[in-house]
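Polysaccharide export protein
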Amino acid sequence: MKRIVVAVVCAGLAGCQALPGAGPLAADINAQSGRSIAESHRANAAVFEVVDVDARTARTVANFSVGLLKRRFGIGGGAKSAVIGVGDQLRVTIFEAGSDGLFSTSDSKQTNIDIVVQPDGKAAIPYVGQVVFAGRTLEQARQAVLSSLVNKAVEPDVIVTSAGTASRNVTVSGAVGKPSMVPLGLSGETIMEVIAKAGGPATQPYESYVTLTRGNKTGTALLQSIIDNPSENIYVQPKDQIFVTQDPRTFTALGEVWKNGRIPFGANDVNLLEAIALAGGGSDERIDAKGYFVFRYEEPEIVSDLLGPERFHDLLSKGMAPNKEGKYPIVYRFDMSVADSLIIGQNFPIKSRDVVYASRHPTVDFQKFMRLVSTPVATARTAQLIANQ
């Protein structure tokens, strides 16, 4: 009997690592943190870092989330001065004091000239020739035409007005009422004003994302965040592209919570504690209170701020790679066994597509192993008793 027990226990210990489990233990996640692809001994392994969620971490993530557009594009104050561009339509009105000048008659002392700014930035004015308009304000263009008329016209004066602003269009597309090319006014317009001109968002603000592309820069923000934070309602510039996306926000809950699966936000925002509550909370008998994790692809600015530039570059050298949006994998660790976790968790925002994972306590695997061992041992004991009868 003793030999049977020893054999069963040895077999169980040898197969302990093969016990089925609902995801990795907290120790497994912590052990893989910061490992290079070579150290992971797996081809194409994901390189990530685990960051403890404390008051600073929660504040850093929350503050960055509400200022992305202003920070990325470096603007947010007043609008830039409107200038004339290629393709703009202008009306140049020339006045003369006399009735027998180049642009006046006995019936009228003014002449209206409609022009279109050509690809070289110039347009022709009779008796003046080619005048540079592109890159100038209306007043600067007026002065340029006026100075060209000196000694040619009789006490001339000039007015330059805008009749069409092809160079000052912004493209607005996606989930809006009327996707279109929106012309910018001379006073400058913000993201919300331009979206309103395109018919407004087609869905609720907390389910609409606004992506602004300017040259080689791209930034995406939740429409609700732009409404709640006026500094994010930045001024757009000519040739900007704005795309509004309808994307109901959800997060995925996995591990030792009562509700595993994809869970909708159902509100403007959700913090970490609310996400755990939406998932039904943790199982008291199975969960590791020190093993709550949030898996996320994070903005590079946040990763660099949290880890420090030196550590960030070290992880890049180990193979940490961004996704198609230029974001990097990071895992936030949350300790629910400490009292201030109920404060910190309220300030840590959950983002769409986050994975909230609650790891099981190590004793769960031990109990499972004991059940695995006890069953054959009990069977062997019963067989021995029968044989001895």
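thats it. Residues 89-164 form a domain with the wza like fold fold (CATH 3.30.1950.10). The radius of gyration is 34 Å. bye
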